[in-house]
């Protein structure tokens, strides 16, 4: 789950960027790419429901395998 708090002072460019991000999530495919399965908005927060990727997020993987 990814949550983005929407500031009331955001302009059209910032809001359009969030719409574009969701569009990209919906279009991408691949074994190592995370896709969004659902999106919803509640109390000034935009949520993206992302597919589960076993092994954790990229920062965890880098920490464990590169920055020993």
Structure characteristics:
globular, three-stranded antiparallel beta sheet, 68 residues, alpha+beta, 3 strands
Helix fraction, binned, reads 25-40%
Large-scale geometry = globular
Estimated share of beta-strand residues: 25-35%
Largest sheet: 3 strands, antiparallel
Low-pLDDT segments, ≥5 res: none
Mean pLDDT: 84
What Rg do the Cα atoms give?
A: 14 Å
Helix/strand/pairing category: alpha+beta
Please give a structural write-up.
The chain has 68 residues and is α+β, with helices and mostly antiparallel strands. It is 35% helix and 25% strand. It contains 2 helices and 3 strands, in the order βαββα. It has helices spanning 12-27, 58-65, and strands at residues 2-5, 36-42, 45-50. The protein has a 3-stranded antiparallel β-sheet with strand order 1-3-2, covered by helices on one side. The mean pLDDT is 84.
Summarize this entry quickly.
The chain has 68 residues and is of the alpha+beta class. The protein is 35% helix and 25% strand.
